[in-house]
């Protein structure tokens, strides 16, 4: 049977996936990929030397929810609820296991295996495999008091107190993400200051990372040419900064695939400047793709067979991407959420 995702697979030694962040937030490595030039092995602290005066560096300031909630059925069976929105009121969620939990059932929310007095009612099932739930207390209060950071399963451990800080960017603002925009995790105040010292500007948009992060890419997604929908907001300040950069010959450097997808989604065909406002995107960026707004991309190393891998290939080409990934594996770079990064110029 033909597997359309087979060409996006690669082998990664397990030891290349760190389960913990680096000792220093900005202490990671940076692989720089320039067209027609050898790869450069740099450091995160060296990122600003690749930035020019007049450039605009765009970060995603979404704040990750402590979205993973432990609960128990009346039968005594444990259930994990992954909340996908801060509410208010009824919210979407993923539930594991889900098949035996009935609509109308009330789960007892727990912390460290003990009941909290808070309940979670299953209101409805959705065709995409998610559910709608309603907590007895406000969602944001429940997550703050009893939630765990939603670390990806490949890290092999639950979120802890360190992750409450390190699985969150230093510029996190509006609450609403079910996973971190991981490229932004590398940035510190000194990295941001060094960018501005080069004469570039740092601006923020918001895209709340959602259910798509937890779902493997499927052949049906490729057939549709679309991903799960995620909301974003781009302010007038971002648009003004990018318009000014275009006039001055500066570049737009997206920090992370989420920033890139928001910018590309908000930029009309034939234009190079996004439109301000709140909207949502299901944009799947894969080769061949004509980039509208983004000129360069700072991003982590991504999972095999993923839409994010395709996005990177749309930036530098599939063959060049896998060449860079082989280089990174051979040189001992860390992959995925708490790994190192690459800059695609």
Write structural notes for this entry.
The chain is of the alpha/beta class. The chain has 2 domains: 19-64 and 164-344, QueA-like (3-Layer(aba) Sandwich), CATH 3.40.1780.10; 68-147, QueA-like (Thrombin, subunit H, Beta Barrel), CATH 2.40.10. Helix content is 22%, strand content 28%. The protein has 8 helices and 17 strands. The strands form 3 sheets. Strands 2-1-17-16-14-3-12-13-15 form a 9-stranded mixed sheet. Helix 7 (307-316) crosses helix 8. The longest helix is centred in the last third of the chain and has 13 residues, at 236-248. The radius of gyration is 20 Å and the shape is globular. The protein starts with 28 loop residues before the first strand and ends with a strand.
| CATH architectural group of the largest domain | 3-Layer(aba) Sandwich
Following the backbone from N to C, one meets helices and strands in this order, namely: EEEEEEEEEEHHEHEHEHEHEEHHE
Give the C-level CATH assignment of the largest domain: Alpha Beta
Please state roughly what percent of the residues sit in beta strands, choosing from under 5%, 5-15%, 15-25%, 25-35%, 35-45% or over 45%. Answer: 25-35%
Q: Domains counted in the coordinates: how many?
A: 2
Strand order of the largest sheet: 2-1-17-16-14-3-12-13-15
The SS-based structural class is: alpha/beta
Helix coverage percent:
10-25%
Question: Which segments are poorly predicted (pLDDT under 50) over 5 or more consecutive residues?
Answer: none
Distance between the termini: 37 Å
> CATH homologous superfamily of the largest domain, by name?
QueA-like
Largest sheet: 9 strands, mixed
How would you state the average pLDDT, rounded?
95
Inertia-based shape = globular
| CATH-defined topology of the largest domain | QueA-like
CA-based gyration radius: 20 Å
Instruction: State the total count of DSSP E strands.
Output: 17
| Alpha plus pi helix count | 8
């Amino acid at each position: 049977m033909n597997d359309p995702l087979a060409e996006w697979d690669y082998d990664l030694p397990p030891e290349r996936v760190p389960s913990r962040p680096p000792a220093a937030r900005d202490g990671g490595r940076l692989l720089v990929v320039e067209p027609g030039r050898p790869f450069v092995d740099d450091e995160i602290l060296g990122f600003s030397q690749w930035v020019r005066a007049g450039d605009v560096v765009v970060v995603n300031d979404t704040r990750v929810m402590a979205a993973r909630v432990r609960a128990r059925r009346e039968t005594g069976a444990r259930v994990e609820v992954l909340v996908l929105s801060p509410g208010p009121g009824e919210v979407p969620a993923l539930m594991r296991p889900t098949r035996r939990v009935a609509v109308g059932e009330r789960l007892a929310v727990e912390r460290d295996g003990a009941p909290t007095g808070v309940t979670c009612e299953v209101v409805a099932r959705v065709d995409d495999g998610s559910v709608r739930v309603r907590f007895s207390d406000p969602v944001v209060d429940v997550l703050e008091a009893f939630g765990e950071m939603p670390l990806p399963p490949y890290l092999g451990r639950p979120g802890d107190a360190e992750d409450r800080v390190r699985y969150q960017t230093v510029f996190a603002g509006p609450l609403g993400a079910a996973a971190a925009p991981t490229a932004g995790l590398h940035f510190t105040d000194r990295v941001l200051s060094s960018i501005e010292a080069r004469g570039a500007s740092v601006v923020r948009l918001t895209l709340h990372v959602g259910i798509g992060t937890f779902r493997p890419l499927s052949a049906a997604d490729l057939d549709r040419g679309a991903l799960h929908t995620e909301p974003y907001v781009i302010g007038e300040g971002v648009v003004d900064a990018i318009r000014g950069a275009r006039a001055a010959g500066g570049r737009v450097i997206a920090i992370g695939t989420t920033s890139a997808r928001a910018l590309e989604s908000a930029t009309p065909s034939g234009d190079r400047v996004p439109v301000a406002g709140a909207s949502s995107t299901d944009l799947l960026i894969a080769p061949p793709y004509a980039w509208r707004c983004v000129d360069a991309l700072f991003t982590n190393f991504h999972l095999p067979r993923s839409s994010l891998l395709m996005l990177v290939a749309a930036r530098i080409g599939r063959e060049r991407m896998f060449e860079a990934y082989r280089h990174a594996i051979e040189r001992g770079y860390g992959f995925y959420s708490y790994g190192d990064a690459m800059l695609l110029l």
